[in-house]
Design brief:
Two copies of one chain form a homodimer. In chain A, about 15% of the residues lie in helices and about 35% in strands.
Chain lengths: ~180, ~180
Amino acid sequence: MLTRKQVADTRHRAARMLENVGIALTPNERENIEIADFGLDDVERTGLELVVYENNDRYCAKELVLFPRQTCPEHRHPPVGTDLGKQETFRCRWGKVWLYVEGEPTANIKAVIPRGDEARYTVFNEIELNPGEQYTIPPNTLHWFQAGDEGAVVSEFSSTSTDEHDIFSDPRIRRIPEIADE
Amino acid sequence: MLTRKQVADTRHRAARMLENVGIALTPNERENIEIADFGLDDVERTGLELVVYENNDRYCAKELVLFPRQTCPEHRHPPVGTDLGKQETFRCRWGKVWLYVEGEPTANIKAVIPRGDEARYTVFNEIELNPGEQYTIPPNTLHWFQAGDEGAVVSEFSSTSTDEHDIFSDPRIRRIPEIADE
C-alpha cells in the first residue's frame, strides 16, 4: 500500500519529467497524476504514472510516465460485455521503452525482469520504441513494458479504458491503487 | 489546388514547428504530413497541417499544426452508418487556439474570420485553449478554430476519423486535398 507521502513524492517526480519533456499539464492534472504500484509495494521498480486526458465510451487518451527501468507488469485487456477488449497504441514521446507482446520470443531481451518475479512474465516478443515510434497492441493480448535507463514518456491512444477489468499474470497484483490513511 | 512545391514548403514549416515544440516524428511521418487547403487555395490563411498517428475502426489520434492565425473552417462530423459521428477531444500542446462551437455566441470573439468568408461562419461560442487545456466536441456539432499569433500545436484524440464525410459550412470546400501534377 502506498503512503500519502509516497504518492506525493512520486507525483512530483513524474510531473517534473513531463515538464522537462515539454508536456504541459493543468495544475489540477499535476495534482492528480495516478500512481499505480499494482499492490506490489515497490513502485519505482514495478509501477506506472498516468495522466488520463480523456476516457469516454468511445476512446481514451493517456500520458504514461516510466522512471528509469520501471516496469509495467504483464497483463491483458479482456472482452467486457459487447466490447472486444481494449486496443491500445503506444507512442514513445521521450526516452526509450521496450514493449513485450505475444509471439516469437526475442533472444536476449533488453529489459531486466524484476528479480524474483520471473515466473510472472511469459511473453517476450520485443518491440523497442524510441521517440516518434509507436506500436498498436490488439485486444486481449498479453503485454508488459519497461523503460530504458533514462525513463520514458509514452502517449497511449486507445479504445475505452476499464482498468478494473485488466487481467495480470501475477495474481498478487491489484490494479486499483490503495493509499494508506495516515 | 496545391502545387508540389507548396506542399513541400508547408510540410517543412509544419515539421519545423513540431520539432521546436519537442514532438518527435519518424522520417516517414515528416515526409507525409497532410496539408489540407480545403480547396480554397490560400493555405496559410485557411488550412491545417496534420500528422495522423493512428486511425482504426475504434479510435483515432492526430497531431494538428496551425500557423499563426491559420483557420480550420467551420464543419461538423455527421453520423455515418451505425456511427454517431466523430467525437473529438482537442488538447492544446503549444501556443494558443480559439475554438468555436454551437451555443451562446461570445461577444467580441478573439479570432478574426478570414475576410470575405464571414457568411461561412455561423457558430461563435468561444473556448480558448492554452497549453495543457482541452475540450471535447460532441458528434455532429458545428465547430471551427483559429490559432493565436504564434500558431498552435493541438493533439486530437477521437473516435474513428472519416474525413471524406465531413460537412463544411462553405460549399466551395473540398476536404480531400488535390495536388497539381506539375
